[in-house]
Design goal:
Blueprint lengths: L6 E4 L2 E5 L9 H14 L4 E4 L4 H12 L3 E6 L5 H9 L3 E4 L4 H15 L2 E3 L5 H14 L8 E5 L4 H13 L4 E7 L4 H8 L22 H9 L3 E5 L1 H15 L5 H10 L6 E5 L7 H10 L4
Parallel strand pairs: 2-10, 3-4, 3-6, 4-5, 7-8, 7-10, 8-9
Antiparallel strand pairs: 1-2
Helix pairs in contact: 1-2, 1-5, 2-3, 5-6, 9-10
Bound molecules: pyridoxal-5'-phosphate.
Amino acid sequence: MHHITPVFEMDNVAYKMDCYQPSGSFKLRGLGRLMHLANQNGSNHFVSSSGGNAGLTAAFLANKLNSEIEVVLPVSTDHHMIRKIEAYGATIHVHGNHWAEADEYARKIVENKGAFYVHPFDHNIIWEGHSTIITESMKVINEPEEIYVSVGGGGLLMGVLLGLEAAQWNTKVFAVETFGANAFHQALEAGKPVTLEKISSVARSLGANRIPNDIFLKAQQHEVESILVSDKEAIQGCVRALDLFGSLVDPACGSVVSAVSKSEKKRLAIMCGGRLMSHEKYVEYLGAFDIC
Ligand SMILES: *Cc1c(COP(=O)(O)O)cnc(C)c1O
């Protein structure tokens, strides 16, 4: 269901441009595989609990699959995201103060109506779908020394690691988060997944409060290293992405652009993309972080 995206090479960095997916992010890979399979097995009613790129992508896919979708959004969801999700014909429920509460409500709908539940990151079929971001890249570039990938709940990271195994690349992986949304970093420190008390970062698409154990174990096995960037650096990365590619990306993606610039090695940057960044928000962040 996803598009094959280009790889742009510049100054020893290859940028895998999943910001060009039609739903705005790499999430189309994994959610596309999951929902397409479910649809083939007879599901035509989906439920998502994300007000972010997962909800947007699930709505995009349901529209393509001529299926019904209900998206449960926490009250904190930005209006421009609600509009975009609605534009694909989704039924919107605004419920709960944060994702966990919205998710609880979503699971009730799933139970009551026998609909198909679409998790934003925790499913092996989603991971298989995400892994194509590497198996696609290997057709156009040689093995890089380093890969930079952002981590929210870790679904993309898991996909990258599975993709590396399939490609037989021994590339060093750096998991990029912001200081305020660092569930993976804290899990590495603790030696096991931990639940964050609170998340505070402009990188809303990285705002998962816990990494699933399977993903944590796989990351340990691959000796994935953590990199943290500040919110300001993430926004500076967005500025650079706009300069380089003319694309407005989420701070999650900006954090990767920022982190990848700190090395000299032969690198692959996973441009996760995202549609949470409106032009109003972009201007607001430039002011808030005193970036000109
Ligand atoms: C979902 C998302 C992430 C994080 O992906 P996970 O699989 O949750 O780790 C990063 N960037 C963007 C733009 C996203 O939409």
